[in-house]
Design a protein that fits this description.
Blueprint: E1 2-3, E2 11-15, E3 21-24, E4 41-44
Antiparallel strand pairs: 1-4, 2-3, 2-4
The protein binds zinc ion.
Amino acid sequence: MFTSGEKPGKGTYKCKKCGKEITLENDSQELPSCPVCGHNKWDKIN
Ligand SMILES: [Zn+2]
């Protein structure tokens, strides 16, 4: 599990609360808060 503000690296992440999927394009991009529900915990799915 990852938290908003971390830089967990390139890949696709899924919001633990609503299931929204986002993609980080590079290793220096921070995980945002979820744009749908505002939650800040993510699972890496890809
Ligand atoms: Zn969400």
